[in-house]
Structures are given as structure tokens and as C-alpha cells.
Amino acid sequence: MDSFMNFVQTANLILFIVLCIFVIVCFMLLAQTNRKLNRLRRRYDILLRGRGELDLEGLIGEHSADIERNNQRMQEIEEKTDQRITQLIRDFQDVEGSISSSIQKVGYHRYNAFDYVTNEMSFSIALLDSRSNGIILTSIFGSDSSTTFAKEVRKGKSNQELSIEEEIALGRALQGD
């Protein structure tokens, strides 16, 4: 033990320097650890910002509840969307049914019914739906009188005899002219 005491007395300056270096290294490591801890604390505060006194476990639980609420909202929106799509399909089918029976094909032909009448004042017009059903309206203009009459058309044909002008109007309607 005496030799250790002699060594300490003779090398106390060297031991003091070694201890000072050791203390400086420890302070540097402590400062570095403190910086890392502060950085983690800032990240943690940012993560919990506006959440009150929640801890990380509470935050995860709250996020899980938010996810569940959002899933329920998405299911409600999906159900409403499905209902709206179903209603739109029904509406579209109604409109499509209405459109198929509306006038879609028109054929028109003007002519002079009599040799003494000019300016093509007489006409025949065919008004047909998508199934080629409809009517042919004919107006014959004369110098003394004017007559208008209609003939029924079913599937592009008439049960009544058609004049040449009415056939021209019907042909134009069927061809889409």
C-alpha cells in the first residue's frame, strides 16, 4: 500500500490531468446525450401538439378511434353513393324509355301539289320514334283551300296508301336525312 501512496504522491499531476480529461470527455458525452434528448422531446411535443396531456399510448388510442370513425363515415358515404347510383340508374332507365318513344327521326319534303300553285307551298313531314313508329302529316295547298291530314306509320310502314311525296318524306326519316 505504501508503494501505491508513493506513486500517487509522485504522479499526482499526471493523475490530475488524466482526471480532468476524463471529466471533459464525460461532459462532452453528457452534452451530446442532452442534445439528442432535446431533439426527441421536440419531436414528441410536435407529435402530441394540441392533444392536451396525452401520452404516446393515449395518442395511439385516439388515432385508432379516429380511424374507426373515418371507416364508419366512409361506409355511410358508400351506402349513400350506392343509393344515389341506384336512383340515377332508375332515372336513366325512365328517361331512356321516354326518349325511345319521342320523335327522333324526321323527314320533310316540299312540293307543288297543283300545276297552277308555285313556291312549293305543299309539304309532307314524317315524324318517327326510335322504333320507326309515328305519323306522316301532309298539307296540300291550293289557291282556294288548304287541306291537312295524317297517316299512321308502324315499323316504317303505313297501312294506308302513301303518295310519292309522303314516301319521299318517310324515306328521308328512315334514312336520317
Q: What's the quick description here?
A:
This protein has 4 helices and 4 strands.
Characterization of the model:
The chain is α+β, with helices and mostly antiparallel strands. It is 58% helix and 17% strand. The protein has helices at residues 2-10, 12-48, 56-100, 164-175, and strands at 105-111, 122-128, 134-141, 146-153. The protein has a four-stranded antiparallel sheet with strand order 1-2-3-4. Strand 3 and strand 4 (146-153) form a beta hairpin. The longest helix is centred in the middle third of the chain and has 45 residues, at 56-100. The mean pLDDT is 86.
- Low-confidence segments, given as residue ranges, are none
Termini separation (Å)? 125 Å
Average the pLDDT over all residues and give the rounded result. Answer: 86
Largest sheet: 4 strands, antiparallel
Helix content: 55-70%
Shape: rod-shaped
Provide the gyration radius in Å: 49 Å
Query: What percentage of amino acids are in beta strands?
Result: 15-25%
Number of strands: 4
Lateral arrangement of strands in the main beta sheet = 1-2-3-4
Q: What structural class do helix, strand and pairing data support?
A: alpha+beta
Number of helices: 4
Order of helices and strands: HHHEEEEH
